[in-house]
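Why does residue order matter? Because the sequence determines the fold. Keep that principle in mind as you read this record.
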Amino acid sequence: MVATERPSEKIVHKWKIFRAICTARPRLGVSERALSVLNALLTFHPETALTGEGDLIVFLSNHQLSRRPQGMPASTLRRHLAVLVDAGLIVRCDSPNGKRYARKDEAGEIELAFGFDLSPLVMRSEEFESLAADIEAEARALKLVRERITLCRRDIAKMIATGIEEGVPTRRAGQGPADWQEVHAAFRAMVAQIPRTATRQELEPIADELSQLADDVLNLQIQESERQ
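Structure:
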């Protein structure tokens, strides 16, 4: 019902919105293979622009459609089409006999079509773009926290090596004397917490701990330099 109420003046570039959907895929609950089927549907729509005017129904058969996503078996194709429908990316417009076809008027214009309606891509375009922007922002934030951890690890390792080499005495955060092996052990314990695959939320506390350790070790170096 929502898809049929799209504003007549609205225009969406089909490949731009498809790229946004691909980026937002984890939030939409669709697989890459399902999106390959959506890609095939879009290639059969003759226009690049999806508008609020006219039908956006693609009425190719399963046989025609399965030839596009690398010869996908019919049973697999039906499953992925169902996923696209359930995710609200396309709408089924079934004919009485279940076949997909278009009926043309005397002028050769399509007056009635049965198949898959692409209208949700127009109606939900802002939603898809917003989801894609959120995911891209989170990916950038994750990259930054990983870079922060990498820089901290490099700096701490260099400072510990310098402290051992120059025999700098240690006193960490007022907790009493400690040798550089203990500092190194604390550093390795923090590094061991880092999962191979982790979210930004998991990495940020580790980055904070490493940053604090880096500050502590740097202060040791400064204090020793001032003492000398």
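Residues 19 and 207 are 32 Å apart (CA to CA).
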